[in-house]
Structure formats: C-alpha cells, structure tokens
C-alpha cells in the first residue's frame, strides 16, 4: 500500500480531487483538511499500479503532484 498526500488551493479546485478519488475502487481517502485556502488530501492506494494510474489522472486533470509519499 502507498499513502500519498496532495496539497492544493481550495479556491482553484475546491473538493474536485477528493470527489474524483472517492469514486475509485482501489484507493481510499484517509484525510481531508482545509485551512484558509490550503487543502491537504491524504489518499491510501491499494497498489503501486493504482497509484501510478490515478496519480497520472490527477496530474492530467488537476495538475496535482503528491507533496509526500509513504509506503505502508
């Protein structure tokens, strides 16, 4: 399993990345916090393959890259 943390501006993307990932079967949103304009989104991916797939989609769709990665 792989835990990725994404940080982005709420004013730019609001909850779109979270809603996008919540609809996917092989990842779980573990944390979502908003402070002023900054969102921190923590996601647990079932495999490296699912991380690679969804990470590419998050970049293509929202220009997000993980600010932190952790193997669990």
Account of the protein in words:
The chain has 72 residues and is α+β, with helices and mostly antiparallel strands. It has 3 helices and 4 strands, in the order βααββαβ. The protein has helices at 10-13, 16-22, 48-62; strands spanning 2-9, 27-35, 38-45, 66-71. The protein has a 4-stranded antiparallel sheet. The N and C termini lie close together (5 Å). The mean pLDDT is 94.
What's the layout of helices and strands?
Layout: E1 2-9, H1 10-13, H2 16-22, E2 27-35, E3 38-45, H3 48-62, E4 66-71
What distance lies between the first and last C-alpha atoms, to the nearest angstrom? 5 Å
Shape from CA axes? globular
Task: Characterize the biggest β-sheet.
Answer: 4 strands, antiparallel
**Main β-sheet, spatial strand arrangement:** 2-3-1-4
- Given the structure, what is the number of helices? 3
**Which consecutive residue ranges, at least 5 long each, have pLDDT under 50?**
none
Mean pLDDT: 94
Summarize this structure briefly.
The protein is of the alpha+beta class and 72 residues long. It contains 3 helices and 4 strands.
Structure characteristics:
72 residues, alpha+beta, four-stranded antiparallel β-sheet, 4 strands, globular
